[in-house]
């Protein structure tokens, strides 16, 4: 891809017009080239399963000293590898090891899966002249593309999520926030909006409990983990419970 | 877009295991969905949430199948080749065939003449 190869790293540090450099053009060409990039700033065209390609693109884009986000960073194309590994480890026995290339491959496969399903769902939306891809479209696409085993558990998941959403709006009723029974309810139903009045212990941990929406989703409904978990977590120093209110 | 579980990324970073509601970041999923085609316009709030769970199922299935290949080889380390074998052996993973074979540039150059 020509967009990547034109600006070798040394140029940035050379601090010269680089008119005499080995590559074809110096500074003058940069705006032109960047306008080419702008004209073609099509994120979809930078999709490439080859990570090295993307990395060189983004580094050279930076080298050109134009902060144009014309290429997608590698990490934006994929699910975070830590999350992927965590899910893999649920399946694998304790003694199993995973090679790095396997981790990366699965990481790439996930992104491909999302694109694949979304493409089909999007086509359906277009055929039906709708602009928004809905959860139903996604589920339909999965069924069509052979992932029908997923459809039922996903439907259950989606329905539980929707119920929780409805209950969340219900729980904004100020009467509920003071209820001690609500301690358990909150952790299964969602983040209580009235955080300062949350009756449990130091606010960050209390909020953490409240924020454990995982209750509605957890397969092993260890609801105690939500409350007990707060004592385990040391990592909430930067947790900003009010972020959603900003 | 609904922000349910927006803390999941932070929660998952801080906790071990699956205590977050969605173990995959919704914003990233949405980004990938948008990139899947030029004409992807709008995405409902629920779609990334469905995907977060679907991707878990997908990863679990792919891992499971790959691990079976590893075990057949009496090994304990899951390699990329095992993933590739699992992909090839599974019909619904056909869309991944090129992906797992991406390093061999001449993958198209070998016309395996299967005359049937």
Automatic annotation (TrEMBL), chain B:
The keyword Nucleus applies. Keywords: Nucleus. The keyword Cell cycle does not apply. It is found in: Nucleus. Residues 23-87 form the Transcription factor CBF/NF-Y/archaeal histone domain. InterPro entries: CBFA_NFYB_domain, Histone-fold, Transcr_DNA_Rep_Reg. This is Transcription factor CBF/NF-Y/archaeal histone domain-containing protein. It comes from Hevea brasiliensis. The lineage of its organism: Eukaryota, Viridiplantae, Streptophyta, Embryophyta, Tracheophyta.
């Amino acid at each position: 891809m020509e967009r990547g190869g034109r600006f070798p790293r040394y140029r940035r540090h050379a601090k010269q017009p680089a008119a005499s450099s080995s590559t074809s053009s110096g500074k003058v060409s940069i705006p032109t080239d960047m306008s080419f990039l702008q004209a073609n700033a099509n994120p979809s065209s930078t999709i490439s399963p080859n990570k090295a390609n993307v990395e060189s693109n983004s580094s050279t884009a930076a080298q050109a000293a134009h902060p144009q986000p014309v290429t997608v960073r590698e990490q934006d194309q994929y699910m975070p590898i830590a999350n992927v590994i965590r899910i893999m480890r649920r399946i694998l026995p304790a003694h199993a090891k995973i090679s790095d290339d396997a981790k990366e491959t699965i990481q790439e496969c996930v992104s491909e899966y999302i694109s694949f399903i979304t493409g089909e769902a999007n086509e359906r939306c277009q055929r039906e002249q709708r602009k928004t891809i809905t959860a139903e479209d996604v589920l339909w696409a999965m069924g069509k593309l052979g992932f029908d085993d997923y459809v039922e558990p996903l439907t259950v998941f989606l329905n539980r999520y929707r119920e929780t959403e409805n209950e969340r709006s219900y729980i904004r009723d100020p009467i509920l926030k003071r209820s001690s029974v609500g301690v358990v309810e909150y952790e299964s139903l969602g983040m209580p909006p009235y955080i300062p009045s949350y009756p449990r212990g130091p606010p960050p941990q209390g909020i953490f409990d409240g924020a454990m929406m995982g209750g509605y989703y957890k397969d092993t409904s260890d609801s105690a983990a939500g409350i007990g978990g707060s004592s385990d977590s040391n990592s909430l120093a930067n947790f900003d419970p009010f972020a959603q209110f900003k | 877009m609904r922000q349910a579980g927006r803390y999941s990324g932070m929660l998952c970073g801080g906790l071990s295991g699956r205590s977050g509601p969605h173990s995959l970041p919704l914003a990233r999923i949405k980004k990938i969905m948008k990139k899947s085609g030029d004409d992807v316009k709008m995405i409902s709030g629920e779609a990334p949430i469905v995907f977060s769970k679907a991707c878990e199922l997908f990863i679990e299935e792919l891992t499971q199948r790959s691990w079976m290949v590893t075990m057949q080889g009496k090994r304990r380390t899951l390699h990329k080749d095992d993933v590739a074998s699992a992909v090839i052996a599974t019909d619904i993973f056909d869309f991944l065939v090129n992906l797992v074979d991406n390093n061999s540039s001449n993958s198209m150059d070998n016309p395996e003449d299967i005359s049937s």
